[in-house]
Amino acid sequence: MLLAIDAGNTNIVFAVFDGDTIKGQWRCSTTTERTADELGVWLHHLFTLAGVPVDAITGAIIATVVPAAEFSLKTLCRRYFDVEPMVVGDPEIDLDMKIVMDRPSEVGADRLVNAVAAHALFGGPLVVLDFGTATTFDVVDSNGDYLGGVIAPGVNLSIKALHMAAAQLPMVAIEAPRNVVGKNTVEAMQSGVYWGYVSMIEGLLARIRKQQNLEHIKVVATGGLAPLFTKAVDEIEHLHGDLTMLGLLMIYRRNSNKTANQA
């Protein structure tokens, strides 16, 4: 079985694959002070509840955009699962993807993993739209090469910023309001965030198509709020909640096979 770990700015997601099947998936808040021992005890308990034998883990792969969390995650894999993890971004890890960027090392590991999975599943050219701490657009061409992207503040981040900057604006739940013009403060805020992001997404997708000289480009959405926005954005053709984890599985298999062939 494979332990796949995606450490984002808000949450760390752990998933166990048995072949192509996810046998368990858990998340905790991203806290760089959390030690490998704390994570190990927590995960061992969850493995037991899910009926997943700890000693069944034969490999691990990590993607992190939080450098300070990498050491604890590597130690977790070595100490509690007795495996040496692959880390997306290490020079020896082959993504089978050209990164056409000024500074390829600056691209978040999760964005590259999503791009690998989306192109393998749906082909290209495409845009991966990820609703995370940031809302990101990642552009992949028909050959599977990563061309670049767009980074905007995440939806939850925008809500928090409004609440913190304006004394009379409350924290509100993110949902699709029935009317664009709100009749009270909460409705007005919900409309501004929801329909504002819908308009931003539609506008950016149109500009990406124009820049790439494409009449049509596939759009794949992922992330916690993706289902909510997929309802309103017609350009989103595919919704995939486990895109990052699937990409980690693909990258692990590619590099495991490559190592085995070289041996």
UniProtKB/TrEMBL annotation:
<dbReference type="GO" id="GO:0015937">
    <property type="term" value="P:coenzyme A biosynthetic process"/>
</dbReference>
<keyword id="KW-0630">Potassium</keyword>
<keyword id="KW-0547">Nucleotide-binding</keyword>
<keyword id="KW-0808">Transferase</keyword>
<comment type="pathway">
    <text>Cofactor biosynthesis; coenzyme A biosynthesis; CoA from (R)-pantothenate: step 1/5.</text>
</comment>
<feature type="binding site">
    <location>
        <position position="130"/>
    </location>
    <ligand>
        <name>K(+)</name>
    </ligand>
</feature>
<keyword id="KW-0418">Kinase</keyword>
<comment type="function">
    <text>Catalyzes the phosphorylation of pantothenate (Pan), the first step in CoA biosynthesis.</text>
</comment>
<feature type="binding site">
    <location>
        <begin position="108"/>
        <end position="111"/>
    </location>
    <ligand>
        <name>substrate</name>
    </ligand>
</feature>
<keyword id="KW-0963">Cytoplasm</keyword>
<comment type="subunit">
    <text>Homodimer.</text>
</comment>
<feature type="binding site">
    <location>
        <begin position="6"/>
        <end position="13"/>
    </location>
    <ligand>
        <name>ATP</name>
    </ligand>
</feature>
<dbReference type="Pfam" id="PF03309">
    <property type="entry name" value="Pan_kinase"/>
</dbReference>
<dbReference type="GO" id="GO:0005737">
    <property type="term" value="C:cytoplasm"/>
</dbReference>
<comment type="similarity">
    <text>Belongs to the type III pantothenate kinase family.</text>
</comment>
<feature type="binding site">
    <location>
        <position position="185"/>
    </location>
    <ligand>
        <name>substrate</name>
    </ligand>
</feature>
<feature type="active site" description="Proton acceptor">
    <location>
        <position position="110"/>
    </location>
</feature>
<dbReference type="InterPro" id="IPR004619">
    <property type="entry name" value="Type_III_PanK"/>
</dbReference>
<keyword id="KW-0067">ATP-binding</keyword>
<keyword id="KW-0479">Metal-binding</keyword>
<dbReference type="GO" id="GO:0004594">
    <property type="term" value="F:pantothenate kinase activity"/>
</dbReference>
<protein>
    <recommendedName>
        <fullName>Type III pantothenate kinase</fullName>
        <ecNumber>2.7.1.33</ecNumber>
    </recommendedName>
</protein>
<dbReference type="GO" id="GO:0046872">
    <property type="term" value="F:metal ion binding"/>
</dbReference>
<feature type="binding site">
    <location>
        <position position="133"/>
    </location>
    <ligand>
        <name>ATP</name>
    </ligand>
</feature>
<dbReference type="GO" id="GO:0005524">
    <property type="term" value="F:ATP binding"/>
</dbReference>
<keyword id="KW-0173">Coenzyme A biosynthesis</keyword>
<dbReference type="InterPro" id="IPR043129">
    <property type="entry name" value="ATPase_NBD"/>
</dbReference>
